[in-house]
Specification:
- By secondary structure, this protein is an all-alpha fold.
- Among the domains are: about 40-70, no CATH class; about 105-219, no CATH class.
- It is built from seven helices and no strands.
- Helix 5 (about 130-150) crosses helix 7 and helix 6 (about 160-180) packs antiparallel against helix 7.
């Protein structure tokens, strides 16, 4: 005979007792459920509505409702403000380009007013002839070209030297065609490309040293 599912009073029988926990096991702690955060008050709801109407971020009202007013919140999706104009590599490259164009296409040689100083230098330092000074000046003139273009195009640095060659050819061709008092020279092209290469090498070395110092500081 099957036992009835209810006792004589009409209630189901009590569940069977749980088996005894084996000895040696760690005690079982009851599950702790964190309390529910308080709901926004009427003032917080009004603040949220005002922020929604004014276009202000709604997250601040939520923080006020939860009592987290002292926390600083950064919206990852918010657009970052543009960098100042003088902090951009492109700005400095543009300024250098203007200066380079003025020097290259000035109607008369830019050193025409410094003849006395150059004669004094060559007289006291015979090794520094005018040709060597001009060659070295052209090298220094294109060092910023190599640095700036490499920083502006970090993934296209292999184009720095071809770009320097093309710019030098354009400068010398323009002087030969349009400027009667300027003297184009193949040595100027060689010096310009050498200056761009020197700037690129200096930049690569500086970046390598900075990476090594950063890795050493991290270790």
């Amino acid at each position: 005979m099957v036992a009835p599912p209810f006792d004589g009073a009409g209630f189901p029988p009590p569940p069977p007792a749980a088996p005894a926990r084996p000895a040696g096991l760690p005690p079982v702690h009851p599950l702790m459920v964190p309390p529910r955060p308080p709901l926004p008050s009427a003032s917080a709801s009004a603040t949220r509505a005002e922020d929604a109407e004014s276009g202000a971020p709604l997250l601040d009202a939520d923080l006020v409702a939860l009592g987290l007013t002292g926390m600083s919140v950064v919206d990852a999706d918010a657009p970052r403000p543009p960098a100042p104009l003088w902090h951009r590599i492109s700005t400095w490259v543009a300024v250098y380009g203007v200066v380079l164009a003025l020097i290259a296409f000035w109607p008369v040689p830019v050193d025409s007013g410094s003849g006395g100083f150059l004669r004094w230098v060559t007289a006291h330092f015979p090794v520094l002839t005018y040709a060597r000074i001009e060659f070295g000046s052209n090298i220094l003139l294109f060092v910023p070209f190599g640095v700036g273009l490499a920083l502006l195009l970090p993934k296209l640095r292999y184009l720095v030297l071809p770009a320097a060659l093309l710019v030098s050819l354009a400068i010398e061709s323009g002087q030969a065609i349009f400027l009667a008092q300027r003297t184009p020279s193949l040595y100027d092209i060689l010096a310009n490309v050498s200056g761009a290469a020197l700037g690129l090498i200096v930049l690569v070395v500086v970046e390598a040293v900075r990476r090594r110092l950063t890795d050493a500081a991290g270790d």
